[in-house]
Amino acid sequence: MNVEYINPFIAASRSVISQTTGFDPAIGQLYVKATPYTGDKVMIIIGLAGKIRGNVVVSFDYETAYKIVSAMMGGMPIQTLDEMSKSAIAELCNMILGNTATIFSKKNIHVDITPPTVLTGDNMQLSAAKSTVVCIPLILDDNAKIELDISYIEN
């Protein structure tokens, strides 16, 4: 996978997470996931269209989701993912991908994104047909982890 396509996701993720939560995510070791693969308990799926087609799945466990939503809401304790919490998580991911699309646009690469879809549950399995899935682990200050799984086909 072309690093020119990965770096915008990393830059946007670090910037948006830092601005909205105060966490300073470190980048873990990138790797390719075999498909099908299982995700954590909370997954947000956003589609990509334009020069790059595919999707991004942002996933984390419940505890990390609670920490993120709590930080986004000024430290209010969060112990469940109600509709407000899911909306906050979806908006965070929407902002990350919106910023990613803006970075691509500045490089004359047109990319559109779809609205986010939030999934929660156990043993969810994803398949990315005819795509390679690159995982970008983002490690938060307290070792909580967010994974960005990017699968795309270049037009």
UniProtKB/TrEMBL annotation:
Residues 43-137 form the Chemotaxis phosphatase CheX-like domain. It comes from the Bacteria. The keyword Hydrolase does not apply. Keywords: Chemotaxis. InterPro entries: CheC-like_sf, CheX-like, CheX-like_dom. The keyword Cell inner membrane does not apply. This is Chemotaxis protein CheX.
